[in-house]
Specification:
The chain has 15 helices and 21 strands. It has helices at residues 17-28, 43-48, 50-67, 82-92, 99-107, 167-171, 187-199, 219-231, 325-343, 360-363, 382-387, 403-408, 441-450, 454-457, 470-482, and strands at residues 5-13, 33-37, 111-114, 116-119, 124-128, 134-145, 149-151, 179-183, 202-207, 235-238, 242-246, 255-259, 264-267, 269-272, 276-278, 312-314, 366-369, 375-379, 392-398, 415-421, 427-433. One of its GO terms (biological process) is 2-oxoglutarate metabolic process.
Length: 486
């Protein structure tokens, strides 16, 4: 970049999936866009989360599936080939190089500035570049904050010197520790416990509460995953808090973990997966009257509500609505269209499910936990429906009773739950647990987002014999209970 000052219609801070898509969509709306990033283009998802973690988990899940298929069990005896797994992980993380992402950004005519970007008053962004140069950017219409999140560490004695793992250390690991302590019971904790137990670690999970694993999902999901982890050899402890950690004898020494019951354990590495904090501590929020380090509260068009004149948008994890890559990309598509429409003085279509409405954030957020068994969900849980005051019919079904499940694996164990709004007779929540259920999720998402009535679903015929036939069995169960489906 030559010169010290530039103007664009839209300036985007952060080149993760949300930032990339926001820049792309505003450019597609006819606006000039620039994106500012001080790490790798593609962000957490491409290099330290979604891509490398699923690369570690794919052979784990595939082996588990194969062991349940008659005729394949003997073919998959023995341990996983750890160097081959790591090599595949490296490939999927593109060896932590972002040239492909840079080429894509260029192909959609979005400019890139590498450096640390900070707000410096309304519509102003100052970028400190690696070569020491400073560039000032002015946004004519909007600044989009897409800086994501960072690991949230608890305040524990000795933690800094114990060199704990974050998700980045786990997904980019160069070795498999003999003993791995995992603190937390959410998605990152579950997935990394699943991966490293299968790769050869003795995993101990330390979960502070008594609600179980994956406590934002249906309780049976966490229960089934915990049972599977224990069956694989992991030690899963609930109601256990860490009070201190210490690694006293150098980088290669074990770490001692003190617990609130007075007990302690020793591990070679300790992974903290206890939550995320907004990556907003050093992006200049104080220059526009906001508090550094806070989540950014937005309205349904992703405008930050506490900023006058409506020029600041927050998209993706940083707004704390739904901390998932695909949802951040969805938000970016909506926000990009909103910014484009406002720049042209066009009216917004902000009706429910309209082109400028963020309806899916509250009604149809899909999520997959790549554990063994897999967990897939979209929409509301039973607990959330109750809190919202909805009267729902809860329909449960044993997926193992479906013919396609028996074909998928011997002794298939899985469970489905569908929530049907008793008044509107539409599906408002779906949870599947079991092998292969990740591939059922899009159909469930379409059902929830389309607000299809169950009478119409009766005519959506699932192919036989596939696991998707569970939809028919759920409708039959609902019919037999209520007598209201043909």
């Amino acid at each position: 970049m030559n010169g010290t000052s530039r103007a664009y219609d839209v300036v985007v801070l952060g080149a993760g999936p949300a930032g990339e898509n926001l820049a792309d969509r505003t450019r597609a709306a006819g606006l000039t866009s620039v994106i500012v990033e001080n790490e790798l283009l593609g962000g957490e998802c491409s290099f330290w989360a979604c891509e490398p973690s699923k690369a570690l988990l794919r052979p784990v899940i595939a082996r588990a599936d194969a062991r349940r298929v008659p005729g394949l069990r003997r073919a998959v005896e023995g341990p996983l080939d750890v160097p081959a797994v790591f090599a595949h992980r490296d490939k999927m993380a593109t060896y932590w190089q972002d040239e492909d992402q840079v080429d894509w950004l260029r192909s959609v005519s979005v400019d890139l500035i590498r450096g640390h970007g900070r707000l410096d008053g309304p519509r102003q962004v100052v970028v400190d570049m690696p070569d020491g140069e400073t560039v000032r950017l002015t946004a004519r219409h909007a600044v989009g904050v897409c800086t994501g999140t960072v690991t949230a560490f608890p305040d524990l004695p000795g933690l800094e010197h114990a060199r704990p793992w974050t998700n980045r250390d786990a997904t980019a690991a160069r070795h498999v520790p003999d003993r791995l302590a995992v603190v937390g019971g959410g998605v990152v904790a579950v997935e990394m416990a699943t991966a490293f137990q299968a790769l050869g670690s003795q995993v101990t999970m330390l979960v502070r509460g008594h609600k179980g694993l994956l406590n934002r999902m249906e309780p049976f999901a966490g229960e089934m995953v915990a049972d599977a982890l224990r069956a694989a050899g992991a030690d899963v402890r609930f109601g256990t808090s860490v009070t201190g950690v210490a690694r006293e004898d150098g980088a290669q020494s074990p770490v001692r973990v003190d617990l609130d019951d007075g007990d302690s354990l020793v591990a070679d590495e300790i992974l903290f997966a206890t939550g995320r904090s907004p990556h907003t501590a050093d992006i200049g929020l104080e220059t526009i009257g906001l508090t550094p380090g806070d989540w950014l509260t937005v309205d349904d068009s992703y405008r930050v509500t506490d900023v006058a004149d409506g020029w600041l948008y927050a998209v993706g994890d940083v707004n704390h609505r739904a901390l998932m890559t695909h949802q951040g990309k969805y938000q970016a598509r909506i926000a990009g269209a909103v910014i484009g429409a406002r720049a042209k003085g066009e009216a917004l279509d902000d009706r429910r499910w309209g082109a400028h409405a963020s309806t899916a954030d509250s009604a149809a957020v899909p999520q997959v936990v790549f554990s063994e068994p897999e967990v897939a969900s979209v929409g509301l849980t039973t607990r959330e429906a109750e809190r919202a005051g909805l009267r729902v019919d809860v329909v449960d079904y044993d997926i193992g009773r479906v013919a396609g499940a028996a074909q998928y694996s011997d002794g298939y164990q899985g469970r489905a739950r569908v929530l049907i709004d008793a008044e509107r007779r539409t599906v408002v929540g779906v949870t599947f647990v079991g092998p292969g259920t990740q591939e059922l999720l899009y159909s469930a998402t379409v059902v929830v987002a389309s607000e299809v009535q169950v009478d119409r679903l009766w005519h959506a015929v699932p192919a036989f014999p596939t696991i998707s036939e569970v939809w028919l069995r759920i409708l039959e169960t609902y019919r037999d209970r209520t007598g209201t489906v043909a």
